[in-house]
Give the backbone structure.
Amino acid sequence: MLNIILFGPPGSGKGTQAEKLVQKYGLVHISTGDLLRSEIANKTALGLEAKNFMDQGLLVPDEVVIGMIDNKLGENKDSKGLILDGFPRTVAQAEALNGVLTNHNTSISAVLALNVTDTELKDRLLKRGATSGRPDDADPKVIEKRINVYKDQTAVVGDFYTKKDKFVEIAGEGSVEEIFSRLTAQIEAVTA
Ligand code: B4P
């Protein structure tokens, strides 16, 4: 399987690029943000719990996200591969992912990390907030919080994969097509 983690701060282009990568490589897209928003839309108990955290720009507790992803990976174990978008976001999630993939006799092929400056992130998210209806994109204070949560809790996940020699940094500013070319060049290198 070709299993790619798209990594980066909120607004770095993970969701945008994941959609294009899925089309090109026929992979299954697993976005924890989308899964959580769908739980919220369906007013499930999990969604109601998650909404409290998401609206404040905080991470949803690990056990909630890990349970959700475990189900999703089980459903897709016969696929060509996965694009994980927005997961893992903590070291506990990365360790849990490792365990689940090992149980399915597979592993992460590469972690592609999109680098974008804070100013550009804030600009993109506020723009999206004007049309997306996402409460976490509408308030500059919540956006700031999400970026700080990324620095405090998620950036260390990069070290976890650097130690495994899987971490590749990609310049995340420029046109969507330019960034897509940078990503596909790395994927071709991994699969060569
Ligand atoms: P996510 O849904 O993962 O949202 P995100 O990080 O904000 O979005 P993404 O990075 O995919 O957006 P994109 O850049 O594509 O998470 C939302 C919340 O869910 C989290 O805050 C947390 O509460 C919770 N959550 C999710 N996963 C979790 C986990 N594993 N553990 C705990 N909690 C979790 O898009 C941003 C904007 O930029 C778009 O408008 C896009 O059009 C634009 N854009 C993209 N590329 C561009 C480019 N090259 N140039 C200009 N604009 C661009």
Remarks:
- Residues 158 and 167 are 7 Å apart (CA to CA).
- The chain has a mean pLDDT of 95.
- The first strand starts at residue 2 and ends at 7.
- The first helix runs from residue 14 to 25.
